[in-house]
Design goal:
By secondary structure, this protein is of the alpha/beta class. The chain is built from 9 helices and 7 strands.
Length: 211
C-alpha cells in the first residue's frame, strides 16, 4: 500500500471509525524494534491497524546517512511481516516532513478514521525539540513504548513532565483511544535494544572489512 487513503465499506461496520496506530520515522533501516512496538500497540490498544509512515528525511538527522527511499520502503515491508501493519509512502507522496503537518494531512485524507501516534521512549526524550510538539499532542492521543536506556523517559523527559496531568495509567491504556487529546500512555513492556543506528554501524564495519 503506497498511499493511505479512505476505505469504503457498507453496513453498520463502516459507521464505526477504524482506529489506526501511526508509527512514523525514517526506518533507516526498519528493524525488529519497530515490529515489537507495533505488535505491543496492537495488543495494548484497540487498534485495527498500524501504519508505518516512511519519512523522506528527518529534520533532526543528517540526510547524508540515509539509504535510498525505495530501499527503506522495501526493507520495511519485509520486516513488517504482519497483515495488520501497513507500510506507506504517505509523507513522500504528499511532500511532508514534519509530524504536525503529517497528522493534519492524515486526518484530512481519512476523515472516517481515528489516529493514535506511536513512538519509542527514545523519541519522547527529544520530543520537545520537534516542530510544534505541543500542537501534536493536541491533535491525537499518543502511546510511548519503553526502549532500553530510555525506560525513565516517561517520567524524566521535558515533554513527559509538561504532559504529566494528561497521562493515562498503563492498566487503562485502551482508554486513550476514546479520549480527546492531549492524552498519552507509557507502555513499559517493550525492551528491544535494536536500533537503526546500530544496524548502520554494523553494516559499515562489515563493508570496510570486505574491501
Amino acid at each position: 500500500m503506497d498511499a493511505v487513503t479512505p476505505s469504503h465499506r457498507s453496513g453498520a461496520q463502516s459507521k464505526r471509525p477504524k482506529v489506526i496506530g501511526v508509527l512514523g520515522g525514517s526506518f533507516n533501516p526498519a528493524h525488529s524494534g519497530h515490529l515489537e512496538i507495533s505488535i505491543a500497540a496492537l495488543e495494548a490498544l484497540p487498534l485495527n491497524e498500524v501504519w508505518w509512515l516512511i519519512s523522506p528525511a528527518n529534520p533532526l538527522k543528517d540526510a547524508a546517512n540515509y539509504a535510498a527511499y525505495d530501499v527503506r520502503v522495501a526493507r520495511a515491508r519485509t520486516v513488517a511481516n504482519d497483515p495488520r501493519i501497513v507500510v506507506s509512502d504517505f509523507e513522500n507522496t504528499h511532500c511532508l516532513q514534519y509530524t504536525v503537518d503529517t497528522l493534519e494531512a492524515l486526518k484530512q485524507h481519512n476523515p472516517d478514521k481515528r489516529f493514535v501516534w506511536l513512538m519509542g521512549a527514545d523519541s519522547l526524550a527529544s520530543f520537545h525539540l520537534w516542530k510544534d510538539w505541543e500542537s501534536i499532542t493536541e491533535r491525537v492521543p499518543i502511546a510511548v513504548f519503553s526502549r532500553p536506556g530510555d525506560e525513565t523517559a516517561g517520567e524524566t523527559s521535558i515533554a513527559a513532565q509538561k504532559l504529566s496531568s494528561f497521562e493515562v495509567e498503563f492498566e487503562n491504556a485502551a482508554a486513550i483511544v476514546d479520549k480527546d487529546p492531549p492524552a498519552w500512555v507509557f507502555v513499559p513492556t517493550t525492551n528491544n535494544s535494536m536500533s537503526s543506528t546500530a544496524l548502520r554501524s554494523a553494516a559499515s564495519k562489515a563493508s570496510r572489512k570486505t574491501r
